[in-house]
Task: inverse folding
């Protein structure tokens, strides 16, 4: 992984909404799944934007 990509990912993680952070560790499987899907979509979008 390049340093630029690492910096971009770290910046993305810092901007992740609090509900995503909270729900990623939730005991409720549906809440975790929803947070994982939202997080993946947000990360994929950030990576696409960085590539263009």
Result:
């Amino acid at each position: 992984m390049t340093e630029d990509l690492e910096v971009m990912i770290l910046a993305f993680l810092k901007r992740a909404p609090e509900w995503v952070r909270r729900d990623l560790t939730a005991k409720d499987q549906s809440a975790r799944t929803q947070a994982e899907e939202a997080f993946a979509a947000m990360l994929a979008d950030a990576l696409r934007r960085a590539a263009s």
About this structure: Residues 27 and 33 are 11 Å apart (CA to CA). The longest helix spans residues 29-51.
